[in-house]
Amino acid sequence: MSWIYLVLAGLLEIVWAYFMKQSAGFTRLTPSLITVVTLLASFGLLALAMRTLPLGTAYTIWTGIGAIGAFLVGILVYNEPANGARVLAALLVMAGIILMKLSST
């Protein structure tokens, strides 16, 4: 169950990052509220996952899911550049996430 909590926490990290951008520096109420609620839910699920998963594994995978997800949202929603160096960096982060998962006990 901890892995499910961790993946959900990572997905919520993508949601709060997106809505933080939408909040325009917390000047828009609805996106700001969504940011805070999803941030707290993400932290809560991460805490639940950390009950049984190692700190380094849980935190690395949580931030990795958020980073890759935010990267993809940036490209798909905000038309941010998807040049070779950025894609390579994202692939390296993904490789790190996979290796961390495979090497966890």
UniProtKB/TrEMBL annotation:
The chain crosses the membrane at residues 33-50, 57-78, 84-102. Pfam families: Multi_Drug_Res. Gene3D superfamilies: 1.10.3730.20. Coiled coil: none annotated. It is found in: Cell membrane. Keywords: Cell membrane, Membrane, Transmembrane, Transmembrane helix, Transport. It is a multi-pass membrane protein. Its main location: membrane. The keyword Nucleotide-binding does not apply. Belongs to the drug/metabolite transporter (DMT) superfamily. Small multidrug resistance (SMR) (TC 2.A.7.1) family. Gdx/SugE subfamily. This is Guanidinium exporter. The lineage of its organism: Bacteria, Pseudomonadati, Bacteroidota, Cytophagia, Cytophagales.
